[in-house]
Amino acid sequence: MWNNRGVREIKQSDKLRDVRYDVRGPILVEAQRLEAEGQKILKLNIGNTAPFGFEAPEAIVASMIHHLPEAQGYSDSRGIYSARTAVAQYYQSCGLKNIDVEDVYIGNGVSELITLVTEAMINDGDEVLIPAPDYPLWTGAVSLAGGTPVHYVCDENNEWNPDLADIEARITERTRALVMINPNNPTGAVYDEAIVAGMVDIARRHDLVLMSDEIYEKIIFDGRVHHHAARLAGDDVLCLTFSGLSKAYRVCGYRAGWVAISGPKHVASDFLEGLTLLANMRMCANVPAQYAIQTALGGYQSVNEYIVPGGRFYDQSKLAWRMLNEIPGVSCVEPHGALYVFPRLDPEVYPIEDDEAFVIDLLRAKKLLVTHGRGFNWIAPDHFRLVTLPNTEMLTEAITRIASYLATKR
User: Fold this and answer.
1) Sign of torsion, CA 131 133 135 141?
2) Model confidence over 237-251: pLDDT tens digits?
3) pTM value > 0.85
4) How far apart are CA 104 and CA 295, in angstroms?
5) What DSSP character marks residue 154?
């Protein structure tokens, strides 16, 4: 295609046709436009801890600074030995006996590793089962790799637990993998052992790779327990466990994540060769942050102070849940983990047809940035996601703005 000056137009790749990432999409662009006009926007669209006063544990910062002289060159493409050993030993202490240092890859956050894994595994037309709602990077990465995301339903009437029957009904001869996000983003659901075991059983019976996104594993409330999928999968289901430092250790910008491979690795040697190839092509993850991993996993777990009554993660989550449920026509399932709430707008009260337009209108009217539910591949325009990281005063102000805006729409 040529423009009116006779110069060929440069277009984006066709591979991006079905790729979306609305957490940082058109709504954020509109927020940036408003900011450029001098308007102050309260951004509750992304789980970035630093802007809300959460600081990294001092020991982690000190460890990274101490090792800076050693971090000036490339590392092993899979990660430095001490970091990979710390990850392996952490999982061993959780009962995952078949994870060793050679089974761990360090990445620039979990996000990079999701992309590497899907590129290494998925062929054109392969199907991957992903929850609805999901963290949209999973859907985007599968699409970018040439695969077909197939969304299974999580049941809002059952604490947002995955519907196991719905998962089973969506499996075809092209299905290659099953994605689990636990604790869940955006719903805050924490799956009990029976649900995790049920998903493991589905993967086992249908010979699927189980990809378990566990980045929020340490952010759990109300005495709930996180169950590692890999522990229940044992030796007969190939399980890829994704986690990292960004949320529990408040170092989103460090980009320190990992994937650990467990199960029958002997049947996955070709895939692992491909994963190593892609890891080699990007040279390595950023090296300074890798030195924080051993300190983080082996030291005092300061996140425990945040997830109990009186702690910020806990109190802010519960405040948001209570206040949202007080708004007429709004209902919100109580989150038991992670850093978000995913409220529903009753279609009888708020007949929204375009939820992206809804949140843009909210943004313009109340200078508040949230993300629409279909940005997380939810099936209807009746939800939005709110980040619960602001302190209680700021969070109260934000939800008061939402209530005021919705009062004009009833």
Assistant:
1) positive
2) 999 999 999 999 999
3) yes
4) 17
5) E
